[in-house]
Amino acid sequence: MSELVAIFFSMALVNNMVLVKFLGLCPFFGVSKKLSSAVSMGVAVMLVMLVASAVTWPLFHLLLVPSGVEFMRTVIFILVIASLVQIIEMAIKRTNLTLYNALGIYLPLITTNCAVLGITFINIDSEYTFIQSLAAALGAGVGFSLVLIIMSGIRERLDLADTPKVFRGAPIAFIIAGLLGLAFLAFGGMVG
Amino acid sequence: MTSTILAVISLSAVGLIAGVAIFVANRILPKEDKSLEKANEVKEFLPGADCGACGKPGCFAYAQAVAKDIEVLEATPCRILAKDEESSKQLGEYLGVDLADAGPGSKAIIHCTGDSPAIGSYNGVPTCGAAVLVGAGEKECPYACVGFGDCGAVCPVDAITVDRERQVAVVDWKECIGCGMCVQTCPRKLIELVSADTPQYLGCNYLARKDVAGRKKCQVGCIHCRICVRSSEHDEVVWDDATDLPRFDTTLAEAAIEKCPRKIIIKTIAFPEVVAAGTAESQVEEPAN
After folding, report:
1. Under CATH, which number does the domain B34-95 receive?
2. B119, B138 in Cβ contact below 8 A?
3. Domain that holds residue A68
4. Any domain includes A190
5. Of the given ranges (A18-27, A119-128, B43-52, B266-275), which has the lowest mean pLDDT?
6. Is A162 a residue whose pLDDT tops 90?
7. How many domains does chain A have?
8. Does the distance separating the beta carbons of B133 and A79 come in below 8 Å?
9. At what angle do helices B34-45 and B85-95 cross, to 10 degrees?
10. Nearest to B144, CA basis, from B136, B153, B152
11. Is pLDDT larger for residue A27 or for residue B15?
12. Å between A25 CA and nearest CA of chain B
């Protein structure tokens, strides 16, 4: 159990998807302008990461490894994640319209999010068991949402701040991202 | 060899299973909500360009809003649909309303006709935004169109092209749907949305207040002589003190266009019988084309 907790926090903070592994940077900058959309995006990514890990782990260990075609994992994982997102979107649209409207366009966008593909690879490269990979996926999702929410909070305040003209918009966002990365570096070495 | 075959088989198998899974999910899951059903049907009539001119994030969001409240169609009409009489009529029939009168709508105009002399060469990222960020582009005039076509890139209907010779963007009014995407994009803030029945506009955005010496930087720049104001008979041209440039209303100011020493008051195709004169020819396309 303590191992699962360690994996969870390791993925959420120490090996944070965005700031340490540099995955999923495009939603990190694209969707971090407003707090509300950052929360929607974070929840959607968390959900897809969890489901994607739950499906790709057995697929890899029960189909690709016995057949000796591990090198096919990139293509097959992309295929699986894309169809999963399709099904999840369909399910949410038909069962819970309010949630569908809240997630909006972010759900289909995640199909091509490298953070989702990244976590499935990390699960396999770190030789996690099925339960461990679920913990890792949840941790990665929480870490992604956390960073997205922090970033959007800062950027909402930044809009009101008197930034020098040349730094307005994207440049100051990149600088903030760098500082956030430095801050998250402090977690380095805390958990394995 | 076997691993190649296995790779092909495993990929096809996973693809097949995924396809079947989507099919099964489509069948098993409960039917869509009633309100969405109507929105889906409304969406069939919409152009699907997701241009955002109506103020909604995309065509589906617009269809949802229309399905919920039919007033939305009149309050924020779809600009592309307004041009397409066939689809417009069909949607009107489906919803049981008359969509014929959507008003004149808006069109984009570019307050520059190019021609400011180049003072250097820019070899960076070929977008207006980047060029303006590092310096001022290639032209001397700080209010000139940079000419890398950022506006054309965001235009959902490809109505804006760049005249390479003069390094200036040109709007095709017949295609323009007045969505205003280009207005937000232009780093020089040269583009403005005007009512589609506007007969003329000024092809320059030179703010004299900020730099009086600059009037010599361009052969087709406004020199703030105010002849247009003096030649107007019924106050169709007024001087805007805030920008130090003339403002026009929706009546044709023929005298002002004639008298302008720089010939930069440009007629639009709102009056098809007139063909823009002099420098204006490249700016507004002739209706015959």
Report:
1. 1.10.15.40
2. yes
3. 2-185
4. no
5. B266-275
6. no
7. 1
8. no
9. 150
10. B136
11. B15
12. 21
Angle, CA B80 vertex, CA B79 and CA B83 arms, to 5°: 95
State the angle between helix axes of A130-158 and A170-185 in degrees (0 to 180), rounded to the nearest 10: 130
Q: Is A112 on the interface with B (CB under 8 A)?
A: no
Contact call for B29 and A95, based on CB within 8 A: yes
User: What are the pLDDT digits (tens) for B199-233?
Assistant: 888 888 776 655 555 566 677 778 778 888 888 77
Name the residue ranges covered by the structural domains of chain B: 34-95, 107-282
In words, the CATH class of domain B107-282 is: alpha beta
Q: Would residue A66 count as lying in a domain?
A: yes
pLDDT of residue B213: 56
Answer with the residue of higher pLDDT: B145 or A150. Answer: A150
Structural domain includes residue A7: yes
pLDDT given for residue A99 in this prediction: 74
B34: nearest CA partner in chain A:
A94
Q: Is A87 on the interface with B (CB under 8 A)?
A: yes
Q: Of B10, B33, B35, which is closest to A64 when you measure between CB atoms?
A: B10
Residue type, A120: T
Interchain contact, A87 vs B15, CB within 8 Å: no
- Sequence letter at residue A172: I
Tokens, residue B277: 């004169």
Position B190 scores a pLDDT of: 85
Nearest residue in A to B28, CA atom: A91
- Is residue B254 within 8 A of residue B81, CB to CB? The reply is no
**For residue A188, what are its two tokens?**
């380095």
Helix or strand holding residue A152 (H, E): helix A130-158
- pLDDT tens digit sequence for A80-111: 998 988 888 888 878 777 777 766 667 777 77
Residues of chain B with confidence (pLDDT) below 50: 272-289
Is the minimum CB–CB distance between A83 and chain B shorter than 8 Å? yes
The residue written with tokens 């030649």 in the block is B231
Q: Looking at residues A170-181, what average pLDDT do you find? A: 90
A86 CB near a chain B CB, below 8 Å?
Answer: yes
pTM of the model: 0.55
Residue A111 in any domain: the answer is yes
